[in-house]
Amino acid sequence: MNNVEKQVISRERVTQHGEVLTARREVDAMLDLVKQETERIDSRFLEPACGTGNFLVVILERKLRAIEKKLTLRESKLKKAEKKYPWKAAFYEPDSMMALASIYGIDILPDSIRAAQERLLGIFIDRYCAIVGQNPPEAYLGAARFILEKNILLGDALNGVDKIIFTNWSMVGRYFKREEYRFSEIQQHPGDEDGLFGGRQMSDTGKPVFIPTPVKIYPLVHYLKLAEEGGNT
Ligand SMILES: C[S@@+](CC[C@H](N)C(=O)[O-])C[C@H]1O[C@@H](n2cnc3c(N)ncnc32)[C@H](O)[C@@H]1O
Fold first, then answer.
1. What does the pLDDT average to over 90-104?
2. Is there an atom of ligand 1 within 6 Å of 53 CB?
3. Ligand 1 pocket, 17 CB below 6 A?
4. What is the CA(104)–ligand 1 centre distance, in A?
5. Which listed residue, 41, 87, 97, 227, has the most CB atoms within 10 A of its CB?
6. What is the pLDDT of residue 201?
7. pLDDT confidence tier of residue 130, bands split at 50, 70 and 90
8. Residue 224 and residue 233: Cα distance in Å, rounded?
9. Are 142 and 126 in contact (CB under 8 A)?
10. pTM for this entry
């Protein structure tokens, strides 16, 4: 059994950081309570003590399965000649990018964060190969790595929230809109109905809704140019 499958890695880590990882059966049961959200491609999930990513990897698997179902349905409606073109990659790539970009995690242990990032990337690559039927292009992988570096963060979710910066990703066609927010600011209003990064100015009931101020807003970037251009802006 490797560290990722163990629930307890060492007694010292349990004592110092309360590290007892959740088993797959419990993860599935808990995520089933919000099943619809786990199958919505752009539904945002943040786990502020994510460990090696036991919840995050299952959320990613579920989102990618939902995209696969969408593709199967589309394929059934295509004419024979249309199926000859490499249409799968074109449809799968932006949706899967958005699925990955909607998953966030924080942990205080560097090796856990690395493991979570690697597991998410592994699933992302495996599913691409299985669903699209070819290896993912380098630019797609570069973008995935870039997103994981921004979303799965080493930090102290209790006492270091001012140092944690999260990216709000949204897709406009094949382009990413990218805005950065300080976690401490988002955290002040955890109950807002518009989700992790707030939203409208006024709710339907007329109550004012919190709108956080971004630390930085980036120009739109094509998802396949994210690794190349993202680091320069
Ligand atoms: C009970 S484990 C749960 C891990 C994961 N959520 C799971 O269910 O498998 C608690 C996690 O919180 C992390 N942790 C402890 N203190 C933390 C802090 N101040 N900020 C962020 N993570 C912390 C530990 O490193 C550990 O991975």
1. 97
2. no
3. yes
4. 14
5. 97
6. 55
7. very high
8. 15
9. no
10. 0.91
Residue to probe by mutation, ligand 1, list 19, 46, 166, most atoms within 8 Å of CB: 19
Mutate which of 58, 107, 112, 166 for ligand 1? The one with the most ligand atoms within 8 Å of its CB, which is 107
- Average pLDDT of 172-186? 94
Closest CA to 99 of 136, 44, 148: 44
How many residues does the structure list for the chain?
233
Assigned token pair, 93 = 């790539």
Question: What is the Rg, in whole angstroms, of the alpha carbon atoms belonging to the chain?
Answer: 19
pLDDT at position 49 over 90:
yes
CA-closest residue to ligand 1 atom 26: 19
pLDDT of residue 187: 80
Q: What pLDDT band is residue 3 in, cutting at 50, 70 and 90?
A: low
What band does 83 get if pLDDT is binned at 50, 70 and 90?
A: confident
106 Cβ below 6 A of ligand 1: yes
Q: Which of 8, 26, 50 to mutate to test the pocket of ligand 1 (most atoms within 8 A of CB)?
A: 50
pLDDT at 37: 97
**Torsion 117-120-126-127 (CA) sign:** negative
CB 128 within 8 A of CB 71: no
Q: In what order do the strands lie in the sheet with 152-154?
A: 45-47, 103-107, 152-154
